[in-house]
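Recall that a protein's primary structure is simply its ordered list of amino acids. Everything else, from secondary elements to tertiary packing, is in principle encoded there. The following example makes that idea concrete.
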Amino acid sequence: MAAQFRSYVWDPALILAQMVLLQAGYYSSLGLWLALLGTLGSTGPSLHQVFSDEILGFSTPPGRLSMMAFILNALTCALGLLYFIRRGKQCLDFTVTVHFFHLLGCWIYNSHFPSTLTWWLVHIVCTALMAAIGEYLCMRIELREIPLSSAPKSNV
């Protein structure tokens, strides 16, 4: 049987490990951004900032800082897609999965479905940013030229 270029083998354990790794990276980097930006607004990171749909908004400084943290987190997680997923075709899938599990976490934490327009806008923008930048970075790696040695082959 001849080997195919970039043959894809169905590996559920690898996919599950990548999902867990990306989700852990999502919350770790979000916590880091909330802590760093919290020093500007003298607020510490809390679960309420991560999961509440009511804190995000333009009217209060903690809401603006949380929105900035989510946007910066999308950029950071795009790098996570580059290092852990490495396939441009799978970036959108993993990005939507991360944000879907975040939606479920918000739903469980708040005991109601997120209903504020700002929450939905921020997360749609973050999903689009993370997927687009992650796919761009992965495609740059995938489209690199393959270096070929210039030494002549003796077995032709």
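The longest helix spans residues 12-41. The chain has five helices and no strands.
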